[in-house]
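Sorry to interrupt, but I need a hand with the structure work. Could you write out one complete protein record for me, on any chain you like? Could you add the entry underneath, on a fresh line?
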Amino acid sequence: MTVDAESAGAAAPGRRGLRDKVLNLVFVRGRVVDVRQAARRMRLVRVTDVPGLDWTPGQHVRVNVSDPFTARAWLRGMADVLRSYSVWNYDAATGVLELCVMDHDGDGPGARWARTVRPGQEVAFTKPQGRFTVRDDAPYHLFAGEETASVAFGAMLRALPAGADVHGVVEVAGPEDRLRLPLGEKLTWRYRGDAPAASSSSLVAAVRALRLPDGPPGVAYVAGEARTVHAVRAHLVRERGWPRRSVLVKPFWTPGKRGMD
């Protein structure tokens, strides 16, 4: 949640104290120290004063992007209050958390927060969560996703043991949409041009074209737009014969669904 000086000053001291107590029960709180472009529509948000988190690469946090104390929030639920963002990195020694935030089209609460967050603002978020993490014992690892998936993929790739067998493809609109942070050299970048990322048949085709090792399947990590990740999973299960338990999916967003815009 972002708090500016004007709104903080307008609230009565007793009310501010109650709000702080409630926020501290639900959220971890930190302060933004840097915001920079990580791709054409992706921003890296660095948050400090965040000690003691238990984070596994691939996990996300749910950021409080609008005021949870308004009547609108109570009536409409948390779908307008929280947005999930993958953690790029967390340094427990310094208490610095790095998030990458995609600027989706539209004017939803997450999009507004992504466009307006600035250094000096306070941010409140849940502890890291999720089971979209690497399985060290897999014979090989397959990654497939688009812009929103590249952040989790980067953290997960860093967590793999040296020499791990990695395959995969990341689809983005164009070269300027590639993540400017180090993602390694083991994934193929594919450009879809003006085609939509939602229900992307080109990503499915790119995964279908991958030459994977013979023998037992590895583990697939498929993330991004909801309909696309389910189409990729269907290809792996129905066409390649992978067990469903070997395909981990993480839907980050989909058009028109409140809470995933």
